[in-house]
Automatic annotation (TrEMBL):
Biased amino acid composition, Polar residues: 91-101
Composition-biased stretches (Basic and acidic residues): 10-20
Renumbered residue ranges of the record's region Disordered: 1-20, 81-132
This protein's name: Uncharacterized protein
Organism expressing this protein natively: Mycobacterium xenopi
Listed Low complexity bias regions: 111-132
C-alpha cells in the first residue's frame, strides 16, 4: 500500500514537472524566435542607414534622414525630400513580434516559487516523504 502511494505520488510529480518543462521549452523557443526577428530587423535598419548615407543623406541617431545635397532646382529638391521621407519610413518599419499565448501562465494556475518547484522537480524527494 505504501509503495503504491509512493509510485502514485512520484507519477503525479513527474507529470507536473513534464508540463512545466514543456512550457519552459516553448518559452525558450519563442525567445529564440523573437531574438531572430529582432536581429533581422536590426540588420535591415543598418542596411537602410548604409544605403541612405551612400545616396548622400545624413542619418541621425534617431534615424531621421536629412538631405546633405544642394539641389539645383525646386523639382530636384522635392525629389530628394521624397527620397529622404521614403528612406526614413523604410528604416523605421520593423516587423511586430508577437508571442503565442500558450506559454503564459493562466490566472487560475498557482505561481510557482523556487522552493516548491524544486520540491516537485525531484521525484526521489517525493518518494522519501510518500505520506505527505
Amino acid at each position: 500500500m505504501l509503495l503504491r502511494r509512493c509510485r502514485n505520488r512520484t507519477g503525479m510529480d513527474k507529470e507536473k514537472v513534464k508540463g512545466l518543462a514543456e512550457r519552459a521549452h516553448e518559452a525558450a523557443r519563442l525567445a529564440r524566435s523573437g531574438a531572430s526577428d529582432l536581429e533581422a530587423a536590426s540588420a535591415r535598419v543598418r542596411y537602410a542607414v548604409e544605403d541612405a548615407r551612400a545616396a548622400g543623406f545624413g542619418v541621425g541617431e534617431d534615424l531621421s534622414v536629412t538631405d546633405r545635397h544642394k539641389a539645383a532646382t525646386a523639382a530636384e529638391r522635392a525629389a530628394r525630400q521624397e527620397q529622404a521621407r521614403i528612406r526614413t519610413r523604410s528604416s523605421l518599419e520593423t516587423p511586430t513580434v508577437t508571442a503565442s499565448p500558450t506559454w503564459r501562465r493562466r490566472p487560475e494556475q498557482p505561481r510557482w516559487t523556487a522552493t516548491r518547484a524544486r520540491r516537485t522537480a525531484i521525484p526521489t524527494m517525493a518518494a522519501t516523504r510518500c505520506g505527505g
